[in-house]
Design a protein that fits this description.
It is built from eleven helices and no strands. The chain has 295 residues and is an all-alpha fold. It has one domain. Helix 3 packs antiparallel against helix 7, helix 5 packs across helix 7 and helix 6 runs antiparallel to helix 11. The chain is globular.
């Protein structure tokens, strides 16, 4: 396992905290506001913040035209489906449950790597996939049997996780010869355009002035998520995928679950606790490096 530099470790800790606490913040933001519009406004405010970062770091913006088809495909798999589906899912699910389902991504990534990219899965990895499936099954069962169950929200979260997993695999293999920050910037711009088109098409009758709480959530997403977290994730996923995935993804849904319970008073059922445990076991079994004996 490659060692993290001090800079990478600091970025990883900040990324984990920002993305973890963002789940209840997003829930607050979309509780009385159209979710796609919430996402669109956050992105358009976040784009200039991200642009200032590129300027400060002297990262060129230009990507040659011949690479734009691949950039569009990376944007669709890493961001279009993820942001559209997960923000709709969190509207109907608790923030903690959406976090657990969204961060099944590493499990999907392991299966996609084996199916599409000839990655070899060990028995331990298949055990992890089974544990994740059981965790999702517990949550889905609760949603289907509860009076307020939202199985569509569960399905949207799983679609978001699956497409993000494919996007992560593709990002690790991209041959676009530009810095990751430039790729992140243009993916964010393209996603902002797509989210805006969707919000105009489906939510225009619901448009209204955001409340103070909604504005606070929008600004946190704009600066913390789109200005910092996404760029940091793409950098770590491209540079140190096993380490970044293992350390960060294991903690983010746990922070999301318990911060949602603390801040929003979301009730935690035994299925939630069981799912958290199963997801930690699953992600660790799939991504935690194996010990290699020296002969």
């Amino acid at each position: 396992m490659p060692a993290l530099s001090r800079q990478q470790l600091v970025l990883l800790v900040l990324l984990t905290v920002v993305w973890g606490i963002n789940w209840p913040i997003m829930k607050l933001g979309v509780s009385d506001y159209p979710p796609l519009t919430f996402r669109s406004i956050s992105m358009w405010i976040g784009v200039p913040v991200l642009a200032l970062g590129l300027v400060a770091l002297k990262v060129p913006f230009r990507i040659e035209r011949r690479h734009w088809p691949e950039l569009l495909w990376l944007s669709a798999t890493n961001m279009f489906f993820w942001h559209g589906c997960i923000i709709l899912a969190i509207k109907s699910l608790s923030s903690g449950r959406a976090a657990i389902l969204g961060y099944t991504m590493p499990i999907f990534s392991a299966v996609i790597g084996a199916a599409l990219f000839s990655a070899v899965l060990s028995r331990r990895s298949w055990l992890g996939v089974g544990a994740a499936a059981l965790g999702v099954g517990l949550l889905l069962w609760h949603e289907l049997t509860g009076l307020a169950g939202k199985p569509l929200g569960v399905a949207l979260a799983l679609v978001a996780a699956g497409t993000w997993a494919l996007g992560t695999q593709l990002l690790r293999r991209t041959r676009i010869p530009v810095p990751t920050l430039a790729i992140s910037f243009w993916m964010t711009v393209l996603t902002a355009v797509v989210m805006t088109a969707l919000s105009v098409g489906f939510e225009q009758p619901q448009w209204k002035a955001p409340s103070t709480t909604t504005w606070a959530a929008i600004l946190f997403n704009a600066v913390g998520v789109f200005g910092f977290a996404h760029a940091t994730w793409f950098y770590l996923a491209r540079a140190l995928p096993p380490v970044a995935s293992t350390l960060s993804v294991m903690l983010i849904p746990i922070i999301g679950v318990f911060s949602g319970a603390l801040w929003l008073g979301e009730l935690l059922h035994w299925q939630d606790f069981a799912a958290v445990g199963l997801m930690v076991v699953a992600i660790a079994s799939v991504l935690w490096p194996a010990n290699h004996k020296v002969s």
